[in-house]
Amino acid sequence: MVDINNPQGILAAVKCGDLYSNHPLKAKEEYRLLVQKYHPDRNKETMAEDVFLKIRDLYAQAEILFESGQWEESNVIEFKTKEDKFKRLKFIKEFPFELGQQYVASSVVVYVLEAEHKRYFENAIKRVSSLRYENQAMEDEFERYFPKFIDKFETAEGKWVLVIKKTKDLVRLHDLLDYYLGRIEPRHVAWMLSRLGNICCYLDYNGLVHNGISLENCFVSPENHAIALFGGWWYCVGQGEKMLGTQKQIYDVMGPLTKTNKTGSITTDLESIKLIGRVLLNKAQVPDSYQAWLEKGAADSARKEFLRWNKVLRNSYGVRKFMRMEVGEKEVYSL
Q1: Rounded to a whole number, what is the distance in angstroms from the first to the last CA of the chain?
Q2: Quick check: 47 and 11 in contact, CB under 8 A?
Q3: Phi and psi of 73, rounded to 5°?
Q4: What does the pLDDT read at residue 72?
Q5: Nearest partner of 94 among 116, 68, 112, judged by Cα
Q6: How many CB atoms are located within 10 Å of the residue 102 CB?
Q7: d(C-alpha 119, C-alpha 138), whole Å
Q8: Where in the numbering of this chain does the J domain appear (predicted)?
Q9: Is 202 within 8 Å of 248 (Cβ atoms)?
Q10: What is the dihedral of CA 62, 64, 69, 71, to 10 degrees?
Q11: Strand partners of residue 321
Q12: pLDDT range class, residue 71, cuts 50, 70, 90
């Protein structure tokens, strides 16, 4: 809800639920307090009259909705499942993607796939559940980078919903890039590329190709220098298996042979990572070996590429140092 001490925030409110609680008596008391604070006869601030009108209009809207039982609130979506159960989500941001809609909240990421994409929904669940680990140490290291489905269901209208657990320190990589106005400092990009390369090594170990490693599907923790790959699993296939699809920007960097054969190849994921690096840097000046690696074609195995990258890092920056990134969910999403 809006901060009632912020007149501009009140003016920006769109729905009655942005200002009032979803309970008639509580909303009435909130309205009374707001009127006391912003009535032009008491408040001589220049914005007071406009704020008062907004308060009054939204309360009138609230009374109508209380009567009809149809409450409205910004950044809230309610799902009705096929079993006639209701699930409510308060989200921070929503984004369209090629198969449906994505919702980012503090504790979850939700993907809603359109009805015709059932096979992608099922493939995501299948591929994530198939991930294997050589030992407990490997599991402890990698499982936090991949989706943990806390709910999955079909809606009454036939859409397919995946609910993935998320920690507050994780923000969508695309949103982090927007926060930095389209360019991230090269040393920070370097640790992100290292984390993605590590994920690729694990996928290669499992014989998988993700086919969806992108700014939209990766979530980054600036605080902990970690990256989680939450989206895109609907495109994941075994190496050598027929591809199910990919995003356009990934298709554009796929090798000619992969495009011809239309089969899963780890080089697709490796080229996707290099693409991410180029986009995050946005032509920023980097050491020559760094730039050469970004432009060179990917190796035929994730391990080979990771070894190449480690050599590039040593040549570019010497001994690794932890660089703090003073930004998080609050800053990125203006909370």
Answers
A1: 11
A2: yes
A3: -150, 140
A4: 66
A5: 112
A6: 21
A7: 30
A8: 6-87
A9: no
A10: -30
A11: none
A12: low
